[in-house]
User: Fold these one by one.
Assistant:
Number 1:
Amino acid sequence: MRRGTKKLTLISLIIFALLGLQACKNKKLLDKNEKNPTVQTFQAQSNGPQTLGKSPYDYTLWYQGGVKHTLSWYGASQRGGAAFKATWSDSDDFLARVGYSWTNAGEDIKNFGNISCQFSYKKSGEGTAGNYNYIGIYGWIRNETATDPNEKLVEYYIVDDWFGNGEQSEKTPITTATTQGNVLGTYQLDGATYQVIKNVREDQPSIDGNQTFTQYFAIRQSPRQKGTISISEHFAQWQKMGLAIGKVTESSFLVERSGESGWLDCTYLKFTKN
């Protein structure tokens, strides 16, 4: 009786040891996959937003000049699902973005719901940017009933951060010296003051080819690299200021540079829609 029990106990210990070894191997494999996720890298320019696998997100990569440009997506199960790393080298102009896009007709603001973006990133390339560069939310708006023909198509930016350059430091808010146009006013949102600038670009590239269109800029006066951007609430503030918001075709997280080299690596990026 005792000998049988002892034999059974020994077998049980061996089984538990083997299970423990397998659990350690599985954990190491999971840790390895978490630290080294499968990354999908794009180098060729995309002609407008392109789908990212089975995720709800699309991406755009565009550049002029330079020797190497990439947008690397970390995958739907990594870092919030929309996270990406962008790199550029000796570029004349570069942009990379990931986020939501709708049909070219756009999503009516009345049905838009509440959209926000949670983000955290690291960056490199201070002091080398050209005369314009933006990090934040980007997209296009269609206003079919706008009385001002220049506002029938709008390019918009919610700028939460930027790279320093020869004309301004990384801590100095972007102004009309960069965006051109006119300051319309300010509002408080997401823990900071945003200054709103409206500009008109004549015969410039757009989602409809070369057009004359309007730009809306909301420039955060205290830059940050981590936080939440309440996209829908920005739209509401713009409407209070008399800006037209009809149908939104895109809301993406963007890095845009007008020159030189650098990188931006999102350690977390997620859009929430309800």
Number 2:
Amino acid sequence: MSETAAAQGFGGAPSARRFTFEYAKLLDVVFWLTMFSGSVVFIEPSPYDFLILITLVLWAIREFYVPRSVLPFLLVLSLWVVGGLFSLIPYWNEPDPVTYTYHTLFITATGMFFALFTARRTSRRLDLLLSGYAASCVLAAAIAVTTWVLGYGEDGEWTLSGRAMAPFKDPNVLGSYLVTGVLYLAQGIILGRWRYLWLTLPSLALILTALFLSFSRGSMGACVIALVMMVAFLFWTADTARMRRTIMAGAVAFVLMAGAGLAAALSIDSVREFFFQRAAVQHDYDEGPTGRFGNQIRAIPMLLERPNGMGPLRYRLTFDLDPHSSYVNAFASNGWLGGFSFIAMVVLTTFLGFRQCLTRHPWMRQAQIVFPATFVFFLQGFQIDIDHWRMFYVTLGAVWGIEAARRRWLADRPARDARSA
């Protein structure tokens, strides 16, 4: 056998090329499993934590690359973490603040990874991300609905104050996690992609049921806002009048389905009573000068006097409650540097997201899922702490990955036009 044939392997195909194909396939499988495991977080560390590290290492060995268009995102996240490290210095000997800061470092690293990972092979990786995420939502919804029904909606190991939460530790996190899955499945129905309707429809119904049983005001509101945003983006960017009619018909069908399910649920007296109790704008723990919102207002003058913040997890020592606002917490736990960096990240991502959803490019439809999901996280950040939510960094990083791919696509367009001329 010649040296050339030996180098290529039997059959003449280059062995390096064959290895690259298999390696890419392995990476895709591990990445999909990582996304699928994202809803199983009632144990710490979770399967997701291990799998995301494996995925990151597999990716970094062969494909590590940083597009210039992602650098602003990496910068603001890095400054947010650096602000937290400065704020930690006086409390370095306390285990809880140290653990909290390490968790911040880890979770922001995953956000950076998703941005860099989806910047290349963008279509394929976004499909894997969204399909794996949606499958994890179906799994979470099945567990949540089953455990709630078996427990008759009472308190138990898998429920909290009559609210479904499994396989999470908090009903609010369960509800918010499911929003992206709702968007992904609903978009297919709205766009008339009914080939797998027999699977999509029951999956969507199951996820919506679990979202309802979480009785999370913020999650339900976020889901409605995200759906309205997505439908508006789809309608605005539709190619033809016929497509606009399809979108509107699909949206109406979705609303009717969701409305029928809601009416059926509210026909049960105990469920209806609990739903309207939870739907109240404010509860006892929200009101008064020592309530959630009162504490936030009282904290602002204190934070204005402390450039280094209060320190990680120190807010609760002063007010006996967590901030319940990621914007307040960014300044309290990460100082002025971290707080303003967090706000800069929100503003930059919002600008890019609207542009991605309203202008044409190959990843516009995926952007019309991941950006509304990210945007409602930003809104929820005003009334709950989202900065350690794993799923927040999934869609956040994907927005920036799409931006890198879009910029590259725009840069290559003159060459494509010249070839087609």
Number 3:
Amino acid sequence: MFMFRSKRTTLAKRLLKARVRREHETTCEAEDGSALFNRTALLKQLKENQLEMLVAAVESRGADLQACVLLPKDLPPVDPHLLCCQIWRWPDLQQPEELKRLPVCRSAKDPVYICCNPYHWSRLCKPESPPPPYCRFARERLKPEDRAPSEASCPAHHPGSLTTNGEGERSGREWCKLAYWELATRVGRLFAVELPSVNVFTSLPHGDGLCLATLAQHHPPPGHDSVRRTRAKIGLGVTLSQEGDGVWAYNRSDGPIFVNSPTLDDPESRTLLVYRVPPGHCLNIFERGKAQCRQLAHTGPVDPNSVRISFAKGWGPKYSRQEVTACPCWLEVLLAPCR
């Protein structure tokens, strides 16, 4: 009988098999009737080519973003994009307000249809309140060369340069430059970003962006196994996007990223804060107009236009690594000052 099974049926079965189950749910447990009805109704609304695109996105875990999978916004009984994200990414998702569209999705201004590709959506991060601060005593023991370059001095000391060490002249078109670091050693040259968004990934060539494996090819092999292991876990990495309300980071990797930014700090505190962004989540990492170059005890001023992002490994008092320069793989996002 299998030779008479339609392609549409085969695709639908693959999608149902790939759904994400709730915590402690097993394949043997009885299915919730309403959930089964909603899924069945949703799949019936999709054309065969839409099912193919959805299968490609789900089975590749977002590596194959492809085009938008569009359905009417008012499709009953629930928001179709919310239902797709519940089925294939976050079973505990409750409200569509918890979701934010990735820059790759081009359906934002469509008045009738909404994209139901679950990997065109990211979940808004709910930061710890408050997140763990840097360890002050550990910072006081550090030598100046062990600190992140953007924690050494303000860019105003180096006219015409985005970086804190005077390297690289701005062309006037880029909104940021990226510096990739492995521990306390920078790998490769600065990467200028002119497009509204940029992908930073290990070696999967999906779209334009910064490929860390390519940078590493022209750099001596890392002496620490932790660098090789962490770099291998980055995968699809992170998408950085300049938007109307600031700069957003979309974590597309399978592990968390850790972020420190001047605009995420408590302005009344003399410590810096590090935020954890889980896989599949996003966070506004830099709000224009909120940054201030301020003095921290014993560390010198902090660059008001820079953000530090560590892949997989956190730093601060809750971790064995007290400083970002102890993290195996991390980025400096050196933002162009407001003009």
Number 4:
Amino acid sequence: MSIASLFKDFRLALSVSNAADISQKYCSITTRLNADFWGIDSDQRNSLQIGSYGRHTAIDGVSDLDMAFELPAAELERYKKLEGNGPSSMLREVRESLKKRYPNTTIKADGQIVGVFFDRYHIEVLPAFLNADGNYIHGDTNNGGSWKVTKPRPEIKAVNDLNKVTNGNLKDVSKMLRAWKNKAGVGIGGLLIDTFAYNFFSQSNKFNEATYSTYPDLFLGLFTYLGALPEQEYWIAPGSGQRVRCKSKFQAKAKKAAKRCQEAIDAVGDAAQAKLWRKIFGRHFPKVTAMAEAAAADDRDGEQFIEDLYPVDIRYDIELDCETKEANVLRDALQKMLRSRQRVPVGRHLRFHVVNCDVPGNYSLFWKVRNRGAEAIRRDQLRGEITPDQGKRERTETASFPGEHYVEVYAVQDGVVVARDRIGVPI
């Protein structure tokens, strides 16, 4: 397969597979709210898809969907005159309306939105009022209640306009960046991803005419650009000019991706190139024949992949480290050894543990231990099963034989992988 065919198939593989179900849910929510707040029967009016789905940059597995629903202007004055927290009263009424349609579904009013939690995805409904500028006034229940302005329409227009200028490359690249952040475990949101892609194309027209055959050079340039960005608290969203918070340090992982892009460009043969692109973008990137045969062999050894068990939509950060012990004496942290390019001596005891996780609320942890190398094959010890955490947020192992092994940890919330990390174990 040519590199153009690989990237074309990659783009197609990112299409949202449950789009019909999502569309039906949007329409159903809109119909219920229109009946209760406007007295009309319509599954379209007063509703706007916003967020990644509204900008048409979402990919398969998207679990956090957004919509704005416009309430009658007179209601705003009523909520403002209420004693206590007006935004809280508004969210409560919207929640009660949606409970009529989904009485057995979890529906939560929180902060600025009402979340409707379906199987493996949820829709966040933003009740709002259209102002004279075409933007939305919405409530915020925090700190006693307040009213704020959000501007999704200018953001959608800015992305659409630049997408036309770049011949569709802006949205394709935004989708592929989402595959990278899901594979690499980069906890940044969809609007920030789209902002980065928008800014990259805005700085130069070099890749406006890019085709799938030139995407290797495009992504080498893009990841190099991302790796060089400064660490800062926020970026400015296109169109709206609103601040987009950045809570994750992504630069090191972008630099690693840029290095792998160059390795893929320099690699000889379709199989070698595709293998490296899959390391960057994950299992949505297609295999070639030789890789498919190797993958079939891997399947026979029982390796499991988290993507086959749950949708992956990384939104938070989780950090993994490992202590190494010899005869119950604590030696070095594995991350420190990796930085100094040391290998773990055979016989060391290993305690992998979560040192940081910013996933809010309840979630479950899962582990994967993968052995690799000739000795693992000889011993029939490749492993690779995914198992639940036992409540200690840690996993103990022994460095039994040489190889380039690794351990991964996953945080699963509401049936979706929302954070992941991986640590290599060179023995």
